[in-house]
């Protein structure tokens, strides 16, 4: 399971939890403007916007999980098992494989409005990166500071949803996730009034009673509700430190602790949580065992270069000793 979200303070932030039972040796990668991006069925992008995000690099190709480009457009792929359905190539359309989708979008566009238009000609084609790295069943969130989209390639074709909550988890399809929020209209940050019974005296014996009914389990539909509630009600100061801290607290509300979600003989955990300041291009992350934030700054490399800068994750716990 995974969760991706947006948050705006003075700057805008985009990031995600990557929840999985194993790692593909993730690394933060900066792709500069002149790194040649080959596409299997579309024209190569030889010059494009630079981007920073989480990847597995295979055969010199940055396979992005989530990223932000130098214009602040951001995108993340999240698991969408049983629902993702990729298509055969269609002549006259932009035929893009799922593993190419993030660089193809972030390489060319600045805003969600531009992306929405480009998606009218898009087919997500069933072409694997390699035999070792086959197609992943994914759906995507694409965001700028103002708005978000969810893109799902399903049996019926390509679905592009406006995403008014700027948040995505996993199954079921996005229309159902949004509809399900109707069930939580009475959940509140304020203490409840007794509407349960006119005859009973009910006491607000604890803080937080307004949110009773908010799901606490780790299923993707429950995480969607919990994370939307947290994000919608989030408050922070405007400084970088306050906003980034708040962002990781939103993701922390739906993180997965080892031992709680069984997958065969393993357990899914939050392998990393990320938060990119989409205005400055600083990509912060923490990992399951390293609670300290590590940061990679898009603008600290030569963005007119043609080779990748790759930073393997710092995964060991960093303890600051105080005495
Ligand atoms: C599995 C990951 C998503 C995590 C997630 O949503 N987990 C929830 C599982 S579930 O709903 O509860 O089943 C996705 C996100 C990005 C994916 C990776 C990226 O798409 C990049 C490449 C793409 C290649 O085709 C496959 C390997 C891969 C390296 C992908 C492996 C895997 O599918 C990743 C890591």
UniProtKB/TrEMBL annotation:
Pathway(s) annotated for this protein in UniProt: Lipid metabolism; bile acid biosynthesis
Any one GO BP annotation for this protein: lipid metabolic process
Superkingdom to which the source organism belongs: Bacteria
EC number: 3.5.1.24
Keywords: Hydrolase, Lipid metabolism
Example GO molecular function: choloylglycine hydrolase activity
Record's catalysed reaction(s): cholate + taurine = taurocholate + H2O; taurodeoxycholate + H2O = deoxycholate + taurine
The Choloylglycine hydrolase/NAAA C-terminal domain, residue ranges: 2-311
Enzyme class: hydrolase
Keyword Isomerase: no
Recorded family membership: Belongs to the peptidase C59 family.
PANTHER family per UniProt: CHOLOYLGLYCINE HYDROLASE, HYDROLASE
Record protein name field: choloylglycine hydrolase
Organism per entry: Nocardioides marmotae
């Amino acid at each position: 399971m995974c969760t991706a979200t947006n948050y705006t303070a003075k700057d805008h932030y985009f990031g995600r939890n990557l929840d999985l039972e194993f790692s593909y040796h993730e690394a933060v990668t900066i792709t500069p403007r002149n790194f040649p991006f080959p596409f299997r069925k579309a024209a190569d992008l030889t010059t494009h916007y630079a981007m920073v995000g989480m990847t597995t690099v295979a055969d010199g190709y940055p396979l992005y999980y989530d990223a932000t480009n130098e214009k602040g457009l951001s995108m993340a792929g999240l698991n969408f098992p049983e629902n993702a359905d990729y298509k055969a190539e269609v002549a006259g359309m932009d035929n893009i494989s799922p593993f190419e989708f993030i660089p193809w979008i972030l390489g060319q566009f600045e805003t969600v409005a531009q992306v929405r238009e480009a998606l009218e000609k898009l087919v997500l084609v069933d072409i694997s990166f390699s035999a070792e790295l086959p197609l992943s069943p994914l759906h995507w969130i694409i965001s700028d500071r103002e708005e978000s989209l969810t893109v799902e390639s399903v049996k019926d074709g390509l679905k592009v949803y406006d995403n008014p909550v700027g948040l995505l988890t996993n199954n079921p399809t996005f229309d159902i996730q949004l509809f399900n929020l109707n069930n939580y209209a009475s959940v509140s940050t304020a203490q409840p009034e007794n509407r349960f019974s006119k005859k009973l005296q009910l006491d607000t014996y604890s803080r937080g009673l307004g949110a009773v009914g908010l799901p606490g389990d780790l299923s993707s539909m429950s995480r969607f509700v919990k994370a939307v509630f947290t994000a919608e009600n989030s408050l922070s100061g405007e400084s970088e430190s306050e906003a980034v801290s708040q962002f990781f607290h939103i993701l922390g509300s739906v993180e997965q602790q080892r031992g709680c979600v069984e997958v065969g003989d393993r357990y899914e955990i939050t392998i990393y949580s990320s938060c990119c300041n989409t205005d400055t291009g600083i990509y912060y992350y923490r990992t399951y065992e390293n609670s300290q934030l590590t940061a990679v700054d898009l603008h600290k490399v030569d963005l007119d270069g043609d080779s990748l800068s790759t930073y393997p994750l710092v995964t060991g716990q960093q303890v600051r000793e105080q005495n």
